[in-house]
């Protein structure tokens, strides 16, 4: 293993310390428990938007803390969900009196830890809601799996909801928007190499020179399928077709009901993409794939969308939700309307995403 | 050999110490199992959590069993992360709730503790048997304990039955296709691998048996 680290045990902490020093105008970092928060938190009267998950996906989530995006992010160990005390303390630290919305990626660990944090925050008297992001079309069903993973759409949902919170949406309206944005996102990823978790010291899986993994998540885990390596256009076609041809997706999730202070099961449906839809297109590097290769993929994605009558309104190209140094990429299409598009364009100023300000 | 067939505070402390030893020793093996079908962190997370528990042991020595188990649950929730933190954490909190104020547990009370632990894990994770999770080790263990205990076997034979059933349950996860947790994303590719959560669960039960039955005539 060759990495720019001092020790696997101190890696996450030292990286966060570095980020805090690099961006003192934007973020602060609290340790024990660990969370990244806006330098100007709490913003009074604003709903606090909080996300979190394992480390190793940088800039997500800590790099998206700041004006117009997240109020706090809770990083776990590498690829390990953070713990409920982190979310709970972050919520207490950054809430501005208008409630807290947790944005949670659909992984068993993330979901359970955020559920416990929700119960803790509620017991503390905080107004709390949570929305699940589960956009990975590589996972076909929810009956025989944990359900779709939260991947690329997470970045877009955080941007759109962060702008809405900044604009003054109240908790109910923000929650509705977050759910709508999440339901409209679809992603698919692939890997050319595995990645090495520092504490483990060797690659999570072995991939031959002529092979690729298709349908991967963001934790260096193997995908749905191992296939012979193909040219970029074929890969772009395969990923974009999986997204464009994805049928309606129904899942039952547990959502916190503040009125009864209990969990209730609700059924949600993602409608398929249709001719005439407008989208934000996101081509993401898993960490080790250079921008130039992402543009090769985007070139083909743009053609595929045009061919399917999908209008790409905005693009995001780069490493925003990564798997350490893994080579590979994911494509995300998120259907938008005027409201979401306006929120997408709104100013944002975070270590990882900045425009209009 | 103790005079009475019970599980006391000293044995709970010994259990936690032995569990910390076992998880430390199994750290890399559990992580390897997790690398095959998950995200290569289970061994590290469990080791980190139980070293945290070990560091608390001196402060637990004067507490009743319920308070000890509650401290363990909170420590695991706050240090393990992943799915295992909330699952084992909730399990220990439920075990704490049914042993509150107790200085020692009868074989029957030990059964209730194990049942409560399983119920907590199932409620938090919503896994059913056959999903290739820790439930596949814990469920047969609780059932085997119950069977042995209700037919009059003592504490140690009942715990031995639980350990045997858990280990059998661990082996049974190998041909299963995962439908819960991160391994479920692999679909059929999860078949042929032993579940790391079931494996750590069996280690915990084995540590409990060792703590109670070392030096006892079964």
Structure in words:
The complex is a heterodimer of chains A (357) and B (218). Chain A contains eight helices and 16 strands. Chain A has helices at 11-22, 84-94, 108-123, 153-167, 171-183, 232-244, 291-307, 338-345; strands at 27-30, 35-38, 48-55, 72-78, 100-105, 128-133, 185-191, 211-214, 225-228, 249-257, 262-270, 278-285, 311-318, 328-335, 348-349, 354-355. Chain A has 357 residues and is an alpha/beta fold. Helix content of chain A is 29%, strand content 27%. Helix content of chain B is 67%, strand content 2%. Chain B has a two-stranded antiparallel sheet. Chain B is mostly helical. The longest helix of chain B has 19 residues, at 42-60. Chain B has helices at 9-25, 27-37, 42-60, 65-79, 84-97, 107-125, 135-150, 155-172, 196-213; strands at residues 7-8, 104-105. The chains are: A alpha/beta (357), B mainly alpha (218). Chain A binds chain B through residues 33, 54, 76-85, 107-109, 112-113, 115-116, 138-139, 144-146, 149, 197, 199-200, 204-205, 215, 217, 219-222, 224, and chain B through 31, 35, 37-41, 44-45, 48, 77-87, 89-90, 124-125, 177, 179-182, 184-187, 189.
Features of this protein?
A: 357 residues, Rossmann fold, Hypothetical Protein Tm841, Chain: A,domain 3, 2 domains, 29% helix, B: 218 residues, Serine Threonine Protein Phosphatase 5, Tetratricopeptide repeat, two-stranded antiparallel ribbon, 67% helix, globular
What structural category characterises the helix and strand content of chain B? mainly alpha
- Any idea what the radius of gyration of chain A is? 19 Å
- The averaged pLDDT of chain A comes out at 95
The helical percent of chain B reads 55-70%
Look at the structure and name the CATH superfamily of the largest domain in chain A.
Dihydroxyacetone kinase, domain 1
The CATH class of the largest domain in chain A is: Alpha Beta
Subunit arrangement of the protein = heterodimer
